[in-house]
Amino acid sequence: MLSAIAKSDPQVYELIVAEKLRQENCIRLIPSENYVSQAVMDATGSCFTNKYAEGYPGKRYYEGQQFTDQAENLAIERAKKVFSADGANVQPHSGSFANMAAYCALAAPGDTIMGLALPHGGHLTHGWKVSYTGKFFKSVQYELDTATGRLDYNKIADLAKQHKPKILISGSSAYPRAIDFKAFEDIAKSVGAFHVSDMAHIAGLIAGGVHMSPIPYSDVVTTTTHKSLRGPRGGMILFKEQHAAAVNKAVFPGLQGGPHIHTISALAVCMGEALTPAFKTYAAQIVANAKRLAAKLMEYGFNLVSGGTDNHLMLIDLRNKNLSGKPFAKALDRAHLECNYNSVPGDTAGPFNPSGLRLGTPATTTRGMKEPQMELIAAWIKTVAENIDNEAAIDKVGKEVMALCKQFPIKESFV
Ligand code: DSN
């Protein structure tokens, strides 16, 4: 496939090749990123990209849907099976659209929504003020307990009682602990709210059976499809049967036009992979790797928010290290260790140079790395922290990282 680009547009071809090499030669620790199988990649680049398909299977506004309908139905049926859901909408172009569609399905502009604040690990689209979700809706934000770094369900219940939201949102982008979706559902029910769960980060762990599923406890569940779930970039909504019409209407024609059938067919491939026993093993290893990486980092004196992890990610609070997030993340990147700077609960440093670093294990686990490699990674992170201004030391780590990467080539298939 790439040979066509090489011939017709060498400039773009070179960028793709360079990015591929970069991804091969670094240890990717951004918890929301992964490597997809070649099958997912191929489906993403298929001729379905040529086809418009506004509407839903069996009810489109363009002809020529003999195969698009089948592809979308396949993705829906597999998604329902993976997550034991009543229904699925596989059209959202992203997690942000999925969230907005969920809110529009269940609430009217001006209604109150309540989600986790961005600096405490929530997502922009959980009602943060710069996001349209925080402008179209009245937004109330709950926070973590800054002493424990954990969700405080009693405080969330009190806030819900006070503000009576129409929608209570559970889920996060930077929370290292298991989420009790039943507790959220109980709170939502007690104030007459709908419960929307955003499982984007942990969808792969839920599919693999190593994290509590929000499906039985939520009216609507949203997710991206490319994080721990290891599918194409996109979004998806799972719902209880009674919300089917409202959710589908909110996605199309409410927020979007034509669905990306090439992405949807790649999602069908991803859902097929998620149904294999190998995916369960993968999900369990993601957590085992995160726990080992976290334990080693703590052994080296790094403070982790909440004192560890239950899932795929951890947040280092650098305030005891005389380091701040941005320069540290940049130094690690020079050492071929890719992660992102992040706020930590109670951070006063601001979002552009916050006091934390966010790390996760979905991508390294996809490459086949296990606990011994996590120990190496922790040691390299310590070395870089201690040599933030020493380019020779950082370079030496980078060479060691690349040598390890060579031992764990990017695989084409996981089943
Ligand atoms: N940007 C994503 C993340 O990195 O967590 C959230 O959508």
Description:
By secondary structure, the chain is α/β, with parallel strands linked by helices. It folds into two domains: 41-274, Type I PLP-dependent aspartate aminotransferase-like (Major domain) (Aspartate Aminotransferase, domain 2); 287-407, Aspartate Aminotransferase, domain 1 (Alpha-Beta Complex). 45% of the residues lie in helices and 13% in strands. It is built from 16 helices and 15 strands. The chain has helices spanning 2-8, 10-24, 38-44, 68-83, 95-106, 132-136, 153-163, 181-190, 203-207, 244-255, 261-274, 277-299, 325-334, 362-366, 371-386, 391-407, and strands spanning 27-28, 55-56, 59-60, 87-89, 112-116, 138-142, 167-171, 194-198, 220-224, 235-239, 303-304, 313-317, 337-338, 340-342, 356-360. The chain has a seven-stranded mixed sheet with strand order 4-10-9-8-7-5-6, with helices on both faces. The chain has a four-stranded antiparallel sheet with strand order 11-12-15-14. Strands 1-13 form a two-stranded parallel ribbon. Helix 9 links the parallel strand 8 (194-198) and strand 9 (220-224). Helix 1 packs across helix 2 and helix 12 (277-299) runs parallel beside helix 15 (371-386). The longest helix has 23 residues, at 277-299. It is globular. The structure holds D-serine. D-serine (DSN) binds at residues 32, 95, 123, 173, 200. Residues 32, 95, 123, 173, 200 line the site of D-serine.
